[in-house]
Amino acid sequence: MNDIFFVKLITDNCLLVFMQRLSREQRKKQEAQTAGWSRRQIVLAALGLILVFSAVDLFWPFDRDLRQFDPVSLGKLETDMWRSYYDRKPVKLFFELAEMLRTQYKFPWLRSYLGAYHAAKAAFGFKDGKQRSDYEKALPALESYFAAIHRTGNIEFDVPYAAKVELEWWIVHRERERYGKEALDKACADAAAVIYLVSRDSTLEHGRLRADAMVIRDVQAAAGGVQEDDWAQIDRLLQACYSSLSRVVK
């Protein structure tokens, strides 16, 4: 009997130790699974927040005041963008456009880059064109660009019409010898009037000053190259043209 009791005691103790060890292993496994699920939930939650933030940033309608721009800063930025465009530096132009959209038109961060992408795509698509049918291939990108401005700003302008008017002054500028300087003045005035819902007459000074800057760039480029003094004069004209526009729209 003692032998049987002793064997039973050992067996029970072994079983108890085994069960305790098994229980510890199960607890560790459950804790590991719980920790794994917690990490996974944190990652999924973070991804969800990023997606929501990105969707709001890119597509949510805002009500930013498009009239509250700084004419001096905007003129300097446009001068830089012209230089990048004519020097065929699309990446530099892209970042300058994004900066302009953020600082002057209060675009959210991601949306500024999306808008810059559409604008740069339209600009360099147009640059390689030879005739009106080529130039019009830039329209879809221009419409996307103005749609981004429309979603961000507080002015209910006509997006497709704004894109067409923008493209028109590009064409008039490209074919200035055919259309003449006065047509370029009016085309630039129209582009601003359509966005800000004001009359062309009120933006004509803006259009004329902007066209004057274009003519200096074109004449000097044809004469052998645009010098720093020329760019400084262009910069002053662009600052003046946006000062004129600011007085009209505010």
Mean pLDDT equals: 87
Strand content: under 5%
Poorly predicted sequence stretches spanning 5 or more consecutive residues: 5-10
> Using DSSP, what is the number of strands?
0
Q: What structural class results from the helix and strand content?
A: mainly alpha
Q: Helicity range of the residues?
A: over 70%
Tally of separate domains: 2
Note the run of SSEs as H and E.
HHHHHHHHHHH
Main pleated sheet:
none
How many whole angstroms does the radius of gyration measure?
32 Å
Distance between termini?
A: 107 Å
Count the DSSP helices: 11
Could you say which overall geometry the principal axes of the C-alpha atoms support? elongated
Structure notes:
With 250 residues, the protein is mainly alpha-helical. It folds into two domains: 1-60; 71-249, no CATH class. It contains eleven helices and no strands. The protein has helices spanning 2-59, 71-86, 90-105, 109-127, 132-135, 139-152, 159-174, 176-179, 181-196, 200-222, 228-249. Helix 4 packs antiparallel against helix 6 and helix 7 packs antiparallel against helix 9. 32% of the residues are buried.
Key features?
250 residues; mainly alpha; 2 domains; elongated
List the helices and strands and how they pair.
Elements: H1 2-59, H2 71-86, H3 90-105, H4 109-127, H5 132-135, H6 139-152, H7 159-174, H8 176-179, H9 181-196, H10 200-222, H11 228-249
Helix pairs in contact: 1-4, 2-3, 2-11, 3-4, 4-6, 6-7, 7-9, 9-10, 10-11
